[in-house]
Specification:
Layout: H1 3-22, H2 27-31, H3 41-60, H4 65-68, H5 71-74, H6 90-95, H7 101-121, E1 131-133, E2 140-142, H8 143-152, H9 154-168
Helix pairs in contact: 1-7, 1-9, 3-7, 3-8, 3-9
Length: 175
């Protein structure tokens, strides 16, 4: 297996895990917070996809799909490229209202296709060390670091799954 295929497989699994977590959830369940200082499933999934979209835009030097394809409208949010959830206060998390599950899946599919295009056509071992400046974060790191940061977001899928387990009990994961 090549390193490109390995990285791509990670993103495929991320999508599969999102599908499992989101499957069958109502709007009320997507917005459920175990306590006022916790993230909802909807917010966690949105934040993870938004972060990947921002990463892609940084790597490509292009506009985020959030803005270009007007995903912000479907999520009832502003066209703010910095609105990814980073630094959100507990009140901002509580105010977040999740759209229907299919919107999450469609947005992730669009972001994934862009990720896949990058990995299969532009990523090279030498590109991993290329420095990328993020206009939204104001930081400069390597491509490798950006990819690892997105892969690290798997933790949010686990957090969303934990909250779903609180709502649905044992067995929701199919095991």
């Amino acid at each position: 297996m090549t390193y490109e295929q390995f990285i791509l497989d990670i993103y495929v699994r991320l999508f599969q895990e999102f599908e499992l977590v989101l499957k069958g959830l109502t709007s009320e369940e997507l917005n459920y917070q175990p306590n006022p200082h916790s993230n909802s499933i909807g917010w966690l999934v949105w934040h993870t996809i938004r972060s990947q979209d921002r990463l892609n835009a940084d790597l490509f030097g292009e506009e985020q799909l959030w803005i270009r394809e007007k995903w912000y409208i479907k999520f009832n949010r502003k066209a703010d490229p910095k609105d990814t959830g980073n630094g959100h206060s507990t009140s901002q998390v509580a105010e977040f209202r999740a759209p229907e599950v299919q919107i999450y899946l469609d947005y992730y599919q669009a972001v994934f296709e862009r990720t896949k295009l990058y990995i299969t056509t532009r990523l090279s071992s030498s590109d991993l060390q290329r420095e990328v400046t993020s206009p939204t974060l104001g930081t400069t790191v390597t491509v490798e670091s950006r990819l690892l940061g997105t892969i690290n977001n798997f933790q949010h899928v686990g957090q969303a799954g934990y909250v779903k387990g609180m709502l649905k009990g044992i067995g929701w994961y199919g095991r």
